[in-house]
Amino acid sequence: MSDQVRVRFAPSPTGYLHVGGARTALFNWLYARHTGGVFVLRIEDTDKARNTDAAMQAIFDGMRWLGLDWDEGPHAGGEHGPYFQSQREDVYLRYFEKLKADGYLYEDGGAWRFKFARKKIVMDDLVCGRVEVDMAHVETHPDMTIRRSDGGWIFHFVNVVDDIEMRITHVIRGDDHLSNTPKHLQLFEALGVQPPRYGHIPLILNPDGSKMSKRDTGSAVGWYEENGFAPEAVTNFLSLLGWNPKTEQEVMPTAEIVSLFDVAAIHRKAAVFDIAKCEWMNQQYIIKMPVEQLAALVEPILAKANIATTRETLLPVLVLVRERLKRLTDAPSWVDYFFTEAVTFDPEAVEKVMRKPGALDRLRALDAVYRTTAWNAVELEVALKAAATAAGAKVGEFVHPARVAATGRTVGASLYHTLEVLGRERVLARFARALAEFAV
What we know:
Strand content: 5-15%
Oligomer: single chain
Helix content: 40-55%
CATH class of the largest domain: Alpha Beta
CATH architecture of the largest domain: 3-Layer(aba) Sandwich
Protein backbone atom coordinates (compact mmCIF):
# COMPACT_ATOMS: atom_id res chain seq x y z
CA MET A 1 0.00 0.00 0.00
CA SER A 2 1.31 3.45 -0.90
CA ASP A 3 2.58 5.83 1.78
CA GLN A 4 0.76 8.64 0.00
CA VAL A 5 -2.92 9.00 0.80
CA ARG A 6 -5.08 7.99 -2.15
CA VAL A 7 -8.86 8.38 -1.81
CA ARG A 8 -11.68 8.11 -4.29
CA PHE A 9 -15.23 9.16 -4.99
CA ALA A 10 -17.07 6.52 -7.01
CA PRO A 11 -20.58 7.66 -7.99
CA SER A 12 -23.00 5.85 -10.29
CA PRO A 13 -24.38 8.01 -13.14
CA THR A 14 -28.01 7.05 -12.59
CA GLY A 15 -29.33 10.40 -11.34
CA TYR A 16 -28.31 13.89 -10.31
CA LEU A 17 -25.45 14.49 -7.86
CA HIS A 18 -27.15 14.14 -4.47
CA VAL A 19 -26.07 16.33 -1.58
CA GLY A 20 -25.09 13.19 0.36
CA GLY A 21 -22.82 12.08 -2.46
CA ALA A 22 -21.39 15.57 -2.74
CA ARG A 23 -20.60 15.58 0.99
CA THR A 24 -18.83 12.21 0.59
CA ALA A 25 -16.84 13.59 -2.34
CA LEU A 26 -16.01 16.70 -0.31
CA PHE A 27 -14.73 14.74 2.72
CA ASN A 28 -12.50 12.64 0.45
CA TRP A 29 -11.26 15.74 -1.36
CA LEU A 30 -10.56 17.55 1.92
CA TYR A 31 -8.62 14.56 3.26
CA ALA A 32 -6.55 14.35 0.08
CA ARG A 33 -5.80 18.06 0.08
CA HIS A 34 -5.05 18.10 3.85
CA THR A 35 -2.55 15.25 3.56
CA GLY A 36 -1.05 16.18 0.20
CA GLY A 37 -2.63 13.03 -1.22
CA VAL A 38 -4.46 12.09 -4.43
CA PHE A 39 -8.18 12.40 -5.06
CA VAL A 40 -9.52 9.94 -7.65
CA LEU A 41 -12.88 10.17 -9.44
CA ARG A 42 -14.12 6.78 -10.59
CA ILE A 43 -17.42 6.27 -12.40
CA GLU A 44 -19.27 3.08 -11.44
CA ASP A 45 -21.29 2.75 -14.64
CA THR A 46 -21.89 -1.00 -14.87
CA ASP A 47 -25.69 -0.53 -14.56
CA LYS A 48 -26.25 0.05 -18.27
CA ALA A 49 -30.04 0.11 -17.95
CA ARG A 50 -30.03 3.07 -15.53
CA ASN A 51 -26.91 5.04 -16.56
CA THR A 52 -27.47 8.27 -18.49
CA ASP A 53 -25.13 10.77 -20.11
CA ALA A 54 -27.08 13.58 -18.44
CA ALA A 55 -26.47 12.07 -15.00
CA MET A 56 -22.78 11.64 -15.77
CA GLN A 57 -22.51 15.28 -16.84
CA ALA A 58 -24.37 16.36 -13.70
CA ILE A 59 -21.68 14.64 -11.61
CA PHE A 60 -18.87 16.42 -13.45
CA ASP A 61 -20.65 19.79 -13.41
CA GLY A 62 -21.65 19.55 -9.76
CA MET A 63 -18.15 18.65 -8.59
CA ARG A 64 -16.55 21.39 -10.66
CA TRP A 65 -19.07 23.92 -9.37
CA LEU A 66 -18.22 22.96 -5.78
CA GLY A 67 -14.51 23.31 -6.57
CA LEU A 68 -13.76 19.60 -6.07
CA ASP A 69 -11.06 19.09 -8.69
CA TRP A 70 -9.88 15.50 -9.11
CA ASP A 71 -6.27 14.44 -9.67
CA GLU A 72 -7.09 11.25 -11.55
CA GLY A 73 -10.23 10.27 -13.40
CA PRO A 74 -12.33 11.25 -16.43
CA HIS A 75 -10.87 14.25 -18.27
CA ALA A 76 -7.85 14.25 -15.90
CA GLY A 77 -6.31 10.92 -16.87
CA GLY A 78 -3.92 9.03 -14.61
CA GLU A 79 -1.83 5.88 -14.38
CA HIS A 80 -4.56 3.62 -13.05
CA GLY A 81 -7.34 4.02 -15.61
CA PRO A 82 -9.65 3.52 -17.29
CA TYR A 83 -11.73 5.33 -14.68
CA PHE A 84 -15.06 4.04 -16.00
CA GLN A 85 -15.99 0.58 -14.74
CA SER A 86 -17.66 -0.17 -18.08
CA GLN A 87 -14.18 -0.06 -19.66
CA ARG A 88 -12.48 -2.39 -17.15
CA GLU A 89 -13.88 -5.80 -18.14
CA ASP A 90 -10.45 -7.36 -18.74
CA VAL A 91 -9.32 -6.28 -15.24
CA TYR A 92 -12.33 -7.89 -13.59
CA LEU A 93 -11.91 -11.10 -15.57
CA ARG A 94 -8.29 -11.37 -14.42
CA TYR A 95 -9.25 -11.09 -10.74
CA PHE A 96 -12.24 -13.40 -11.24
CA GLU A 97 -10.02 -16.11 -12.71
CA LYS A 98 -7.56 -15.75 -9.84
CA LEU A 99 -10.30 -16.21 -7.22
CA LYS A 100 -11.70 -19.16 -9.13
CA ALA A 101 -8.29 -20.79 -9.48
CA ASP A 102 -7.66 -20.34 -5.76
CA GLY A 103 -10.91 -22.08 -4.87
CA TYR A 104 -12.87 -19.09 -3.53
CA LEU A 105 -15.69 -19.25 -6.10
CA TYR A 106 -18.40 -21.70 -7.01
CA GLU A 107 -21.15 -21.67 -9.60
CA ASP A 108 -24.77 -21.45 -8.48
CA GLY A 109 -27.47 -21.48 -11.16
CA GLY A 110 -25.23 -19.77 -13.69
CA ALA A 111 -24.12 -17.09 -11.20
CA TRP A 112 -20.82 -17.17 -9.34
CA ARG A 113 -20.59 -16.89 -5.57
CA PHE A 114 -17.70 -16.09 -3.27
CA LYS A 115 -17.25 -18.43 -0.30
CA PHE A 116 -16.99 -16.50 2.94
CA ALA A 117 -14.69 -17.70 5.67
CA ARG A 118 -16.97 -18.49 8.58
CA LYS A 119 -15.35 -16.30 11.22
CA LYS A 120 -15.57 -13.05 13.11
CA ILE A 121 -14.44 -9.95 11.19
CA VAL A 122 -12.98 -7.08 13.22
CA MET A 123 -12.90 -3.62 11.66
CA ASP A 124 -11.00 -0.62 12.99
CA ASP A 125 -13.12 2.10 11.43
CA LEU A 126 -11.74 5.65 11.24
CA VAL A 127 -15.10 7.07 12.33
CA CYS A 128 -17.02 4.26 14.01
CA GLY A 129 -14.09 2.76 15.90
CA ARG A 130 -13.91 -0.98 16.55
CA VAL A 131 -16.70 -2.91 14.85
CA GLU A 132 -17.09 -6.71 15.05
CA VAL A 133 -19.23 -8.77 12.68
CA ASP A 134 -19.64 -12.51 13.18
CA MET A 135 -19.93 -14.14 9.76
CA ALA A 136 -19.96 -17.67 11.13
CA HIS A 137 -23.56 -18.39 10.19
CA VAL A 138 -24.59 -18.85 6.57
CA GLU A 139 -28.20 -18.00 7.49
CA THR A 140 -27.29 -14.41 8.38
CA HIS A 141 -24.35 -14.02 5.98
CA PRO A 142 -24.92 -16.15 2.89
CA ASP A 143 -22.13 -16.48 0.38
CA MET A 144 -21.91 -13.42 -1.86
CA THR A 145 -22.72 -13.34 -5.56
CA ILE A 146 -19.98 -11.54 -7.45
CA ARG A 147 -21.08 -12.32 -11.01
CA ARG A 148 -24.63 -12.66 -12.24
CA SER A 149 -25.76 -15.40 -14.58
CA ASP A 150 -25.87 -12.84 -17.44
CA GLY A 151 -22.17 -12.10 -16.90
CA GLY A 152 -22.72 -8.78 -15.15
CA TRP A 153 -20.52 -7.90 -12.19
CA ILE A 154 -21.79 -7.22 -8.68
CA PHE A 155 -20.79 -3.96 -6.94
CA HIS A 156 -18.86 -5.62 -4.09
CA PHE A 157 -16.40 -7.37 -6.38
CA VAL A 158 -15.63 -4.58 -8.85
CA ASN A 159 -15.46 -2.03 -6.04
CA VAL A 160 -12.71 -4.01 -4.30
CA VAL A 161 -10.84 -4.78 -7.53
CA ASP A 162 -10.81 -1.11 -8.51
CA ASP A 163 -9.62 -0.04 -5.05
CA ILE A 164 -6.74 -2.51 -5.39
CA GLU A 165 -5.83 -1.47 -8.92
CA MET A 166 -6.09 2.25 -8.15
CA ARG A 167 -3.96 1.88 -5.00
CA ILE A 168 -6.66 3.36 -2.74
CA THR A 169 -5.35 3.74 0.81
CA HIS A 170 -8.45 5.15 2.52
CA VAL A 171 -12.14 4.66 1.77
CA ILE A 172 -14.40 7.38 3.20
CA ARG A 173 -18.03 6.60 2.44
CA GLY A 174 -21.53 6.73 3.91
CA ASP A 175 -22.29 4.49 6.86
CA ASP A 176 -25.00 2.77 4.83
CA HIS A 177 -21.97 0.87 3.43
CA LEU A 178 -20.77 -0.25 6.86
CA SER A 179 -22.48 -3.64 6.48
CA ASN A 180 -20.66 -4.16 3.15
CA THR A 181 -17.19 -3.72 4.61
CA PRO A 182 -16.82 -7.22 6.16
CA LYS A 183 -17.60 -8.68 2.72
CA HIS A 184 -15.02 -6.43 1.11
CA LEU A 185 -12.40 -7.28 3.72
CA GLN A 186 -12.84 -10.97 2.96
CA LEU A 187 -12.29 -10.29 -0.73
CA PHE A 188 -9.09 -8.36 0.03
CA GLU A 189 -7.88 -11.24 2.19
CA ALA A 190 -8.66 -13.83 -0.51
CA LEU A 191 -6.73 -11.75 -3.05
CA GLY A 192 -3.79 -11.40 -0.68
CA VAL A 193 -3.94 -7.60 -0.60
CA GLN A 194 -3.82 -5.31 2.42
CA PRO A 195 -7.18 -3.46 2.55
CA PRO A 196 -7.50 0.31 2.73
CA ARG A 197 -8.51 2.02 5.97
CA TYR A 198 -12.26 2.53 6.07
CA GLY A 199 -14.15 5.46 7.53
CA HIS A 200 -17.94 5.44 7.43
CA ILE A 201 -19.47 8.88 7.72
CA PRO A 202 -22.98 9.53 9.12
CA LEU A 203 -26.04 9.89 6.96
CA ILE A 204 -27.65 13.28 6.37
CA LEU A 205 -31.14 13.55 7.84
CA ASN A 206 -33.93 16.10 7.57
CA PRO A 207 -34.71 18.14 10.73
CA ASP A 208 -37.57 15.71 11.50
CA GLY A 209 -35.15 12.78 11.52
CA SER A 210 -36.20 11.35 8.16
CA LYS A 211 -33.63 10.44 5.53
CA MET A 212 -33.23 13.02 2.76
CA SER A 213 -35.05 12.03 -0.41
CA LYS A 214 -34.90 13.28 -3.97
CA ARG A 215 -38.04 15.33 -3.31
CA ASP A 216 -36.50 17.33 -0.47
CA THR A 217 -35.39 20.93 -1.06
CA GLY A 218 -31.63 21.09 -1.42
CA SER A 219 -31.13 17.40 -2.14
CA ALA A 220 -29.52 18.03 -5.55
CA VAL A 221 -26.28 19.97 -5.96
CA GLY A 222 -27.62 21.61 -9.12
CA TRP A 223 -30.44 23.17 -7.07
CA TYR A 224 -27.95 25.38 -5.21
CA GLU A 225 -26.49 26.85 -8.39
CA GLU A 226 -29.97 27.45 -9.84
CA ASN A 227 -31.17 29.12 -6.64
CA GLY A 228 -28.43 31.64 -6.07
CA PHE A 229 -25.95 30.00 -3.71
CA ALA A 230 -22.24 30.73 -3.87
CA PRO A 231 -20.28 27.49 -4.35
CA GLU A 232 -17.87 28.26 -1.49
CA ALA A 233 -20.83 28.73 0.87
CA VAL A 234 -22.29 25.35 -0.06
CA THR A 235 -18.88 23.69 0.34
CA ASN A 236 -18.52 25.30 3.77
CA PHE A 237 -22.05 24.22 4.76
CA LEU A 238 -21.53 20.61 3.61
CA SER A 239 -18.19 20.36 5.40
CA LEU A 240 -19.93 20.98 8.72
CA LEU A 241 -22.52 18.24 8.16
CA GLY A 242 -20.97 15.63 10.40
CA TRP A 243 -17.53 17.15 10.92
CA ASN A 244 -16.41 19.29 13.85
CA PRO A 245 -13.54 21.71 13.11
CA LYS A 246 -13.15 22.26 16.87
CA THR A 247 -13.47 26.00 16.48
CA GLU A 248 -16.25 28.49 17.25
CA GLN A 249 -15.98 29.80 13.72
CA GLU A 250 -18.48 28.45 11.19
CA VAL A 251 -17.86 30.60 8.13
CA MET A 252 -14.44 29.56 6.83
CA PRO A 253 -12.69 29.84 3.48
CA THR A 254 -12.05 26.51 1.79
CA ALA A 255 -8.29 26.75 2.40
CA GLU A 256 -8.91 26.97 6.15
CA ILE A 257 -11.29 24.01 6.05
CA VAL A 258 -8.58 22.00 4.27
CA SER A 259 -6.00 22.93 6.90
CA LEU A 260 -8.34 21.92 9.78
CA PHE A 261 -9.88 18.79 8.30
CA ASP A 262 -9.40 15.62 10.31
CA VAL A 263 -11.21 12.34 9.72
CA ALA A 264 -11.02 11.63 13.44
CA ALA A 265 -13.23 14.68 14.06
CA ILE A 266 -16.12 13.31 11.99
CA HIS A 267 -19.16 12.65 14.15
CA ARG A 268 -20.62 9.19 14.52
CA LYS A 269 -24.09 10.70 14.93
CA ALA A 270 -26.23 11.49 11.87
CA ALA A 271 -25.94 15.03 10.50
CA VAL A 272 -29.05 17.22 10.36
CA PHE A 273 -29.66 19.18 7.18
CA ASP A 274 -30.99 22.71 7.65
CA ILE A 275 -31.57 24.75 4.49
CA ALA A 276 -32.10 27.92 6.57
CA LYS A 277 -28.58 27.49 7.99
CA CYS A 278 -27.21 27.08 4.48
CA GLU A 279 -29.03 30.24 3.40
CA TRP A 280 -27.59 32.15 6.38
CA MET A 281 -24.10 30.95 5.51
CA ASN A 282 -24.65 31.94 1.89
CA GLN A 283 -25.58 35.45 3.02
CA GLN A 284 -22.36 35.69 5.06
CA TYR A 285 -20.34 34.78 1.97
CA ILE A 286 -22.19 37.33 -0.15
CA ILE A 287 -21.48 40.05 2.42
CA LYS A 288 -17.79 39.19 2.75
CA MET A 289 -16.70 38.22 -0.76
CA PRO A 290 -14.83 40.76 -2.92
CA VAL A 291 -17.38 42.88 -4.74
CA GLU A 292 -15.79 42.02 -8.11
CA GLN A 293 -16.38 38.33 -7.39
CA LEU A 294 -19.96 39.08 -6.37
CA ALA A 295 -20.51 41.02 -9.59
CA ALA A 296 -19.25 38.09 -11.67
CA LEU A 297 -21.72 35.76 -9.95
CA VAL A 298 -24.65 38.18 -10.20
CA GLU A 299 -24.22 39.40 -13.79
CA PRO A 300 -25.62 36.23 -15.48
CA ILE A 301 -28.62 36.33 -13.13
CA LEU A 302 -29.32 39.98 -13.98
CA ALA A 303 -28.92 39.28 -17.69
CA LYS A 304 -31.46 36.44 -17.41
CA ALA A 305 -33.85 38.94 -15.77
CA ASN A 306 -33.26 41.36 -18.70
CA ILE A 307 -31.48 43.90 -16.49
CA ALA A 308 -28.71 45.48 -18.52
CA THR A 309 -25.66 46.62 -16.55
CA THR A 310 -21.97 47.28 -16.90
CA ARG A 311 -19.40 46.21 -14.34
CA GLU A 312 -18.64 49.88 -13.63
CA THR A 313 -22.27 50.77 -12.84
CA LEU A 314 -23.00 47.49 -11.03
CA LEU A 315 -20.20 47.58 -8.44
CA PRO A 316 -21.41 50.60 -6.39
CA VAL A 317 -24.95 49.21 -6.43
CA LEU A 318 -23.79 45.84 -5.09
CA VAL A 319 -21.85 47.55 -2.31
CA LEU A 320 -25.17 49.11 -1.29
CA VAL A 321 -27.47 46.09 -1.46
CA ARG A 322 -25.24 43.08 -0.75
CA GLU A 323 -26.30 42.77 2.90
CA ARG A 324 -29.90 42.38 1.72
CA LEU A 325 -29.13 39.33 -0.44
CA LYS A 326 -29.71 35.92 1.11
CA ARG A 327 -29.28 34.40 -2.32
CA LEU A 328 -27.63 35.70 -5.48
CA THR A 329 -31.00 35.27 -7.19
CA ASP A 330 -32.40 37.98 -4.90
CA ALA A 331 -30.29 40.54 -6.77
CA PRO A 332 -32.75 41.48 -9.57
CA SER A 333 -35.43 42.62 -7.12
CA TRP A 334 -32.93 44.71 -5.15
CA VAL A 335 -31.11 46.39 -8.03
CA ASP A 336 -33.63 46.72 -10.86
CA TYR A 337 -34.55 50.36 -10.16
CA PHE A 338 -30.91 51.39 -10.53
CA PHE A 339 -30.89 50.25 -14.16
CA THR A 340 -34.20 51.47 -15.56
CA GLU A 341 -36.13 54.71 -15.65
CA ALA A 342 -39.39 52.80 -16.00
CA VAL A 343 -39.63 52.38 -12.24
CA THR A 344 -42.75 50.53 -11.14
CA PHE A 345 -44.43 51.98 -8.08
CA ASP A 346 -45.56 49.39 -5.55
CA PRO A 347 -49.33 50.02 -5.14
CA GLU A 348 -49.14 49.37 -1.41
CA ALA A 349 -46.29 51.88 -1.08
CA VAL A 350 -48.31 54.44 -3.01
CA GLU A 351 -51.32 54.06 -0.72
CA LYS A 352 -49.27 53.92 2.46
CA VAL A 353 -46.90 56.79 1.66
CA MET A 354 -47.70 58.90 -1.37
CA ARG A 355 -51.43 59.26 -0.67
CA LYS A 356 -50.73 60.39 2.89
CA PRO A 357 -51.77 64.04 3.44
CA GLY A 358 -48.81 66.38 2.96
CA ALA A 359 -46.51 63.75 1.42
CA LEU A 360 -46.30 65.50 -1.96
CA ASP A 361 -45.72 68.88 -0.32
CA ARG A 362 -42.78 67.45 1.58
CA LEU A 363 -41.43 65.84 -1.62
CA ARG A 364 -41.67 69.25 -3.38
CA ALA A 365 -39.77 70.89 -0.53
CA LEU A 366 -37.06 68.22 -0.70
CA ASP A 367 -36.90 68.55 -4.49
CA ALA A 368 -36.20 72.26 -4.15
CA VAL A 369 -33.46 71.69 -1.54
CA TYR A 370 -31.78 68.88 -3.48
CA ARG A 371 -31.32 71.07 -6.56
CA THR A 372 -28.45 72.86 -4.81
CA THR A 373 -27.21 70.20 -2.33
CA ALA A 374 -23.72 68.72 -2.81
CA TRP A 375 -24.45 65.22 -4.16
CA ASN A 376 -23.02 62.81 -1.62
CA ALA A 377 -24.72 60.70 1.06
CA VAL A 378 -23.57 62.85 3.98
CA GLU A 379 -24.81 66.15 2.52
CA LEU A 380 -28.02 64.58 1.26
CA GLU A 381 -28.82 63.37 4.77
CA VAL A 382 -28.03 66.76 6.32
CA ALA A 383 -30.20 68.54 3.75
CA LEU A 384 -33.17 66.20 4.23
CA LYS A 385 -33.08 66.52 8.02
CA ALA A 386 -32.85 70.30 7.73
CA ALA A 387 -35.86 70.33 5.40
CA ALA A 388 -37.82 68.20 7.86
CA THR A 389 -36.95 70.55 10.72
CA ALA A 390 -37.97 73.60 8.67
CA ALA A 391 -41.31 71.96 7.90
CA GLY A 392 -41.89 70.94 11.50
CA ALA A 393 -42.08 67.31 10.37
CA LYS A 394 -40.46 64.07 11.43
CA VAL A 395 -37.47 62.89 9.39
CA GLY A 396 -39.40 59.78 8.34
CA GLU A 397 -42.09 61.94 6.77
CA PHE A 398 -39.48 63.14 4.29
CA VAL A 399 -37.56 59.87 3.96
CA HIS A 400 -40.54 57.70 2.98
CA PRO A 401 -41.88 59.75 0.04
CA ALA A 402 -38.33 60.32 -1.18
CA ARG A 403 -37.65 56.58 -1.21
CA VAL A 404 -40.90 55.67 -2.95
CA ALA A 405 -40.43 58.40 -5.54
CA ALA A 406 -36.84 57.34 -6.26
CA THR A 407 -37.21 53.53 -6.10
CA GLY A 408 -40.90 52.69 -6.25
CA ARG A 409 -40.87 50.84 -2.93
CA THR A 410 -40.72 51.41 0.82
CA VAL A 411 -37.69 49.25 1.64
CA GLY A 412 -34.15 49.19 0.36
CA ALA A 413 -30.58 50.07 1.15
CA SER A 414 -29.59 53.33 2.85
CA LEU A 415 -31.68 56.07 1.22
CA TYR A 416 -28.90 58.64 1.09
CA HIS A 417 -26.39 56.25 -0.47
CA THR A 418 -29.06 55.09 -2.90
CA LEU A 419 -29.71 58.68 -3.99
CA GLU A 420 -25.97 59.30 -4.32
CA VAL A 421 -25.52 56.29 -6.62
CA LEU A 422 -28.58 57.18 -8.70
CA GLY A 423 -27.27 60.71 -9.25
CA ARG A 424 -28.92 64.13 -9.03
CA GLU A 425 -30.40 64.20 -12.52
CA ARG A 426 -32.13 60.82 -12.23
CA VAL A 427 -33.39 61.45 -8.70
CA LEU A 428 -34.91 64.83 -9.53
CA ALA A 429 -36.51 63.38 -12.68
CA ARG A 430 -38.08 60.63 -10.55
CA PHE A 431 -39.29 63.15 -8.01
CA ALA A 432 -40.92 65.12 -10.84
CA ARG A 433 -42.60 62.00 -12.23
CA ALA A 434 -43.97 61.04 -8.79
CA LEU A 435 -45.25 64.54 -8.15
CA ALA A 436 -47.05 64.54 -11.50
CA GLU A 437 -48.40 61.00 -11.18
CA PHE A 438 -49.76 61.28 -7.64
CA ALA A 439 -51.03 64.86 -7.70
CA VAL A 440 -54.65 64.89 -6.66
